[in-house]
UniProtKB/TrEMBL annotation:
Residue ranges occupied by any Glycosyl hydrolase family 13 catalytic domain in the UniProt entry: 41-421
Position of the signal peptide: none
Protein name: Alpha-amylase
GO terms, biological process: carbohydrate metabolic process
SUPFAM superfamilies for the chain: (Trans)glycosidases (SSF51445), Glycosyl hydrolase domain (SSF51011)
Molecular function (Gene Ontology), one example: calcium ion binding
Native organism: Aspergillus heteromorphus CBS 117.55
């Protein structure tokens, strides 16, 4: 069916026959699998890199939860909440997995985000609202050691970590972790040099480099970038150690006992043992159930390594679609780029059931031109494939420039797009990817959300596209929920189920039945932070 729906509007006899077939199928919606599909779900990354280090973010998010719920957000990905190496650390510099802001360690009891009690209150309130929390699990390394230890190591070539560039020598590394504030509470495990296979600093010589611990090796089931991409930063954990594996497996169950989580994001999955990751996922799901959601961060612009990793992992998790973000960035910055190629060689095209789609996040290095962000969000939020994730920094703005107030992306219309996903983006999808600078698609609705929608976008001048929304919508007056199209303000669906939908230059329009828009209350807001 998908190949049929990507054709241009018919002019020849064969094309007319094809469109009649499409219309016949579209008019039998109640016979399609999508007719009884469950409601769309949506994830929010609920932080950005420069959130103020005021230890108030858990409280901030709890105040915002009702607003998030109103705009169609179901699951919240929160930042790493374990104790970092400093009170300002975002958690990717993880010190103690078992300290959620409970113990006086590394200069503070609370983490950058708040205390354990505030975190538990946030998660409990989300649960009361029927919303899920996804934990950001940073398992690859440890930072902020309590003391140094001396041990033999060799330096390796940063460009090829399989090549040794020194003889074995005694180094002094920050690898001693005894967690003085926590002691043996929750776990008696202490970490020493034999629990790590690499460091990046020799305290004796005050020298930076990548050092491989003698008697240890890099994991083989990691990315082959730089020869072997096991080592990433800080003190790199050695997953061949039974003590390390057991402690982290224990933590996986412990964190879910402390907090009623619905899933996890696994940080930096290409940098540590895929074999351990499978063991960890199976271990957690054995207790939490098979629907416990796991998404991995495998940052690579090409799709092939992601597909190879998913196969290696036996498809036990999803991945963020980094190649799609690269497409968004490239097309947004290329004058009159061909929009028809927007999904070419992306994860959502190749393995949609394992793709978490996004536009930006806290790590994004591929800039997306501002005019294109609403187009990109419409493409991930309103189409049938992929599990979309929106970004806190796009919802509220970024705080990196303290001299200027936060400015939301998408002209402040992102909440309208998220609500459109929840209310209208259901059922059969019909693509009109027929012109390089103006593409569109329609959704025909399902049993519980029969209204459907029509989306049209342009990266050049103003444009019009005739699209089919179904004969049952004949004579309805459809309006652009984004409010960017002022002429015409309404599109009347003809007796055959077609409408001539318009979009202004360098923009996107999302058209729905004007009566349905009023009934569904598109103007509900986010609430305050």
């Amino acid at each position: 069916m998908s190949s049929l729906l990507s054709c241009c509007f018919p002019r020849k006899r064969r094309e007319r026959r094809l469109w009649r077939q499409i219309e016949e199928e579209a008019d039998k919606l109640d016979q399609l699998p999508s007719w009884d599909a469950p409601d769309n779900v949506l994830m929010l990354q609920a932080f950005e890199w420069h959130v103020p280090a005021d230890q108030g973010h858990w409280r901030r998010l709890q105040r915002a939860l009702p607003g998030f719920k109103d705009i169609g957000i179901d699951n919240i990905w929160i930042p790493p909440g374990s104790k970092a190496m400093s009170p300002c650390g975002n958690g990717y510099d993880v010190y103690d997995l078992y300290d959620l802001g409970e113990f006086d360690q590394k200069g503070s009891r609370a983490t950058k985000w708040g205390t354990k009690e505030e975190l538990q209150s946030l998660v409990a309130h989300a649960q009361d609202l029927g919303m899920g929390i996804y934990w950001d699990a940073v398992l690859n390394h440890k930072a902020g050691a309590d003391f140094t230890e001396r041990f033999p190591a060799v330096r390796v070539d940063p460009q090829d970590r399989n090549v040794e560039i020194s003889s074995p020598e005694e180094v002094e590394g920050w690898v001693g972790f005894n967690f003085p504030g926590r002691g043996d509470r929750y776990s008696s495990m202490k970490y020493h040099s034999h629990h790590f296979n690499g460091i990046d600093w020799d305290q004796v010589r005050q020298r930076k480099g990548i050092y491989k611990t003698q008697g240890h090796d890099w994991a083989r089931d990691v990315s082959s970038e730089n020869g072997n991409y096991d080592y990433l930063m800080f003190a790199n954990l050695d997953w061949s150690s039974e003590e390390v594996r057991n402690d982290v497996l224990n933590w996986g169950l412990w964190i879910n006992a402390q907090l009623p989580l619905r899933g996890m994001r696994l940080d930096a999955v290409k940098h540590y043992s895929a074999g351990f990751q499978k063991e960890f996922i199976d271990h957690v799901r054995a207790t939490m159930g098979p629907d416990y959601f796991i998404v991995g961060e495998y940052w690579k612009g090409e799709t092939k390594p992601l597909l190879e990793y998913l196969e290696q992992m036996e498809y036990k998790l999803s991945l963020f679609d980094a190649p799609l973000v690269g497409c968004f960035s490239s097309i947004s910055q290329t004058r009159r780029a061909d929009l028809r190629t927007i999904f070419h060689d992306t994860l959502v095209q190749k393995k949609p059931e394992h793709a978490v789609t996004f536009v930006t996040n806290h790590d994004t290095v591929s800039p997306i031109t501002p005019f294109f962000k609403p187009l990109a969000y419409a493409l991930i939020l309103l189409r049938e494939h992929g599990q979309p994730c929106i970004f806190y920094g796009d919802l509220y703005g970024l705080t990196s420039d303290v001299k200027h107030p936060m400015t939301p992306s998408c002209g402040g219309t992102l909440p309208r797009l998220t609500r459109a996903r929840k209310l209208y983006a259901y059922g059969l999808q019909q693509d009109y990817f027929d012109k390089p600078n103006c593409i569109g698609f329609t959704r025909h609705g399902n049993r519980t959300h029969p209204s459907g929608l029509a989306c049209i976008m342009s990266n050049a001048g103003p444009a019009k596209k005739r699209m089919y929304v179904g004969r049952r919508h004949a004579h309805e007056h459809w309006t652009d929920i984004l409010g960017w199209c002022t002429a015409p303000r309404t599109v009347v669906i003809d007796k055959y189920g077609y409408g001539d939908f318009v979009v202004r230059a360098m923009s996107v329009s999302v058209w729905v039945d004007g009566g349905a828009e009023g009934r569904e209350g598109m103007d509900m807001g986010m609430g305050e932070l």
